[in-house]
Design a protein that fits this description.
With 615 residues, the protein is α+β, with helices and mostly antiparallel strands. The protein contains 20 helices and 23 strands.
Length: 615
C-alpha cells in the first residue's frame, strides 16, 4: 500500500481555485482556436526524475502555438550555430506586443526570438545552417522541428492540420512581418515558405502533460526525464532559459518575473510552461486569455505555485541537491534494544516494512517531493526520515513533510522524523489539531519506535514480555538438562529497581548478569550531562560478558529502566568451570562470544564500517 503525495492534495485545491478565475476570453483571431472550451483547465508538475503530477484536463490536446518558440530557437542554435543566430536575432526584451511589426532601429534585427519576428527568423534557421530554403527545404525544416518538439515531449507529435490551415488563412500580420524581414535581409528566399513552416510549427498538437515534460527537459539540462534522450546540448540550455526569463511573457515579462520568477513561455491556445532549473517543470492549460495573450488561469496557477512552493528562482538560491544517503531497515539494522527471541524472530520476518531514510543535502520542494514519493511507494508500515545531515529545510518542504504524515496515517501507516536537538524544523504538533508529529533525537530511537509499531501490527498480541525461564536464556543455548543442573547452584538471584545503577563505568568486572525479568540499559555520560544509550537489555540478554572475558574494567554504566530480576554468575565461578565442567564451560564461552560479537556487529553497523556487519 502506498500513500498519495500531499502535492496531489495541493494541486487539486489549486485547480479548484483556478476554476474560480473567470476573466479573459478565448483567442478568436484564429477561427479554429475560437472553438476551444473556455472552462478547460489542467495543471501538471513534472520532476526532473520523470514523475508527473497532474490534475484537471491534462490530456486534452491543444496546439503549442508560441510555446514552440523557445524550442525552435534551441534548434536554430544547434543547427545554425550561436554566431549565425545572433547575427539575425537579438536577445533584448521588446516591451512590445508579441506580434509587433518592428525591428531594432540600429541593428535591423528582431529584438528577441520570443516575439513573432524573432520566432519566424529562428524557424528559418532550423535545419539549414543558413536560412535559404525552397519548398523541399521547408518540408525538411518542418520535419526537423516536429521531430525536435517530439524529442522534448518524449513522444511523437503531429501537426493539427485544421488549425494549421486556419493559421495560414488568417496569418496576414505574420506575412507582413515575414516580408519586412525579407526586405531587411533577415530572411533569404521566399518568405512564404518559412511562414508556412512557422504556421505549421505553431499548430503542432500537445497536451498539458507533454508541455510539463518539455519544461522539465529544459530544467534537466536538456535531457528528457523519462526517455533519457538528450533533446538539447547542455551548453545551449542556459541561452534558451535566459531569453525565456527576460522575454518569454512578452510585454508582461517584468510583472511575471516579480510575481512568479520562473523562465516561462505562453501560447494563445491557453498553454503556459515554466520551469525551475535543476528541479522541475510545470505546465498549465486553460484557453481564457488576458490582454497580453497569456492564459488567465495559467498565470494565476503559476503565481500561486511559485508563492506556495517558494519556487521563485531568486529565492531558490540554494541548489536542490538532496539524496537518500542510506536506508536502514530494522530487520538488518535493528535498534539497540536487545529483544526476546520471539520479538527478534518476528522482526527478522517483517523488519523490511520499517525503514529509516537518511538524507543529506538541502531539502527544497523538488527534493522533498522526491523523498516523500520514495517513502510513499515503499511497502512500509512505519518509516522515519532522518534530517540531521540535511543542511537546510525550507518552509514549503516542511509543510509537505508534515502533510505526508497525515496522508500515511490515513492508510494505516506511520511516518516520523529524526532531527538534530535544538533544530526544531518540523515542530512537534500536527496541523489542524492532528495527532502530534513524532520527532526523535537520533536514529536509534526512531528505529526502536518502528520496531514497536511492527510488533504491534504483526505480533497478534501473543508476544510476552514477562520473565525469562533459565532454559530460555540465550546464554543457556545448547546446554543439556544435566549441565543446567550443574550451573544453577552458581547463579545467584539479585533484584533491581527502576533507576538503580546496577554496574558502574570503570568498575572491575567480576560478574556476568543474566537479565531474567525487567529491562536494563547500558549508557555513557555526555559532556552536557546527558547520557548516550548503548543498548537496552530485555529478558534473555546478558550484561558484562565482554569485560569478564577480557578481564577488563566495565566500559559503560548499567541502569535499571524498570524493576526486575537478575541471575549473577561471578567471573571466579565461570573460570572454575573450565576445570570442573570443561564441556559446560566451553558452551558458555561460545555463547558469551556470540553475544559479544552481536554487540560488536551492531556498533560497526552504526559506525558504517564494512566487514563485521555483513560477515
Amino acid at each position: 500500500m502506498t500513500a498519495a503525495s500531499p502535492i496531489d492534495d495541493y494541486l487539486h485545491e489549486l485547480l479548484r481555485r483556478c476554476r474560480a478565475q473567470d476573466g479573459g476570453a478565448v483567442a478568436d483571431y484564429i477561427p479554429e482556436l475560437a472553438r476551444a472550451d473556455p472552462e478547460l483547465t489542467g495543471i501538471c508538475l513534472a520532476t526532473i526524475d520523470g514523475h508527473v503530477y497532474e490534475v484537471g484536463d491534462t490530456r486534452v490536446p491543444f496546439t503549442i502555438q508560441s510555446t514552440s518558440k523557445p524550442f525552435a530557437y534551441a534548434m536554430a542554435l544547434e543547427d545554425a550555430g550561436p554566431a549565425a543566430v545572433a547575427a539575425k536575432i537579438d536577445v533584448e526584451p521588446s516591451g512590445d506586443a508579441f506580434n509587433s511589426i518592428s525591428l531594432d532601429p540600429v541593428s535591423g534585427r528582431p529584438l528577441n526570438p520570443m516575439i513573432n519576428a524573432g520566432a519566424i527568423t529562428a524557424t528559418s534557421l532550423v535545419g539549414t545552417g543558413g536560412g535559404a530554403a525552397g519548398a523541399a527545404g521547408g518540408d525538411a525544416r518542418l520535419a526537423r522541428i516536429v521531430a525536435g518538439l517530439s524529442r522534448f515531449a518524449g513522444r511523437p507529435l503531429a501537426v493539427d492540420e485544421a488549425v494549421a490551415a486556419s493559421e495560414s488563412a488568417t496569418g496576414h500580420r505574420n506575412r507582413a512581418i515575414g516580408w519586412m524581414l525579407r526586405s531587411r535581409g533577415i530572411l533569404d528566399g521566399d518568405p512564404d515558405t518559412t511562414l508556412e513552416t512557422y504556421f505549421r510549427q505553431c499548430a503542432v498538437a500537445v497536451d498539458c502533460r507533454d508541455m510539463s515534460l518539455m519544461a522539465a527537459t529544459l530544467a534537466n539540462g536538456g535531457v528528457h526525464p523519462l526517455t533519457g534522450e538528450r533533446a538539447l546540448a547542455r551548453g545551449l540550455v542556459q541561452q534558451v532559459l535566459s531569453v525565456m526569463t527576460t522575454c518569454g511573457m512578452y510585454d508582461a515579462a517584468g510583472n511575471w518575473m516579480v510575481n512568479v520568477g520562473l523562465p516561462a513561455k505562453s501560447g494563445v491556445a491557453g498553454g503556459i510552461l515554466a520551469l525551475l532549473p535543476g528541479q522541475l517543470g510545470l505546465a498549465v492549460f486553460s484557453p481564457r486569455l488576458d490582454a497580453w495573450g497569456n492564459s488567465v488561469r495559467g498565470v494565476f496557477a503559476c503565481r500561486e505555485l511559485s508563492r506556495d512552493l517558494d519556487l521563485h528562482f531568486l529565492r531558490a538560491s540554494r541548489p536542490a541537491h538532496v539524496a537518500i544517503a542510506a536506508r536502514h531497515a530494522v530487520d538488518t539494522e535493528p535498534s539497540r534494544r536487545r529483544r526476546p527471541v520471539a520479538e527478534r524472530e518476528l522482526l527478522q520476518r517483517v523488519g523490511a516494512r520499517g525503514i529509516v531514510f537518511e538524507l543529506q543535502g538541502d531539502v527544497l520542494v523538488a527534493s522533498a517531493e522526491r523523498v516523500i514519493r520514495a517513502v510513499a511507494h515503499e511497502p512500509l508500515d512505519a518509516a522515519a526520515i532522518d534530517l540531521r545531515d540535511a543542511e537546510y529545510v525550507d518552509t514549503p518542504s516542511i509543510r509537505l513533510l508534515q502533510a505526508s504524515v497525515e496522508r500515511m496515517r490515513e492508510q494505516g501507516r506511520e511516518l516520523a522524523f529524526v532531527e538534530r536537538p535544538g533544530r526544531d524544523s518540523l515542530g512537534v504538533v500536527g496541523a489542524d489539531g492532528a495527532r502530534p508529529i513524532l520527532v526523535f533525537p537520533d536514529r536509534d530511537a526512531a528505529s526502536e519506535w518502528i520496531e514497536e509499531r511492527l510488533l504491534a501490527l504483526h505480533g497478534d498480541g501473543d508476544l510476552a514480555r514477562g520473565a525469562c525461564a533459565l532454559d530460555e536464556h540465550r546464554l543457556m543455548r545448547d546446554l543439556t538438562g544435566e549441565q543446567l543442573a550443574q550451573l544453577a547452584p552458581l547463579l545467584r538471584p539479585r533484584a533491581f529497581t527502576a533507576g538503580e545503577r546496577v554496574a558502574a563505568l570503570g568498575d572491575e568486572a567480576k560478574e556476568v548478569f543474566l537479565v531474567m525479568r525487567g529491562e536494563l540499559s547500558t549508557s555513557l555520560p555526555l559532556p552536557d550531562g546527558g547520557r548516550r544509550r548503548l543498548s537496552t537489555l530485555t529478558p534473555g540478554w546478558t550484561v558484562g560478558e565482554i569485560a569478564v572475558l577480557s578481564d577488563a574494567a566495565r566500559t559503560a554504566d548499567t541502569y535499571a529502566d524498570t524493576d526486575g530480576d537478575l541471575l549473577v554468575l561471578t567471573a571466579a565461578d565461570f573460570h572454575t568451570l573450565a576445570d570442573t565442567h570443561p564441556a559446560l564451560h566451553a558452551t558458555l564461552l561460545r555463547n558469551m562470544l556470540t553475544s559479544a560479537y552481536d554487540v560488536a556487529a551492531q556498533l560497526m553497523r552504526e559506525l558504517g564500517r564494512p566487514g563485521v556487519a555483513g560477515a
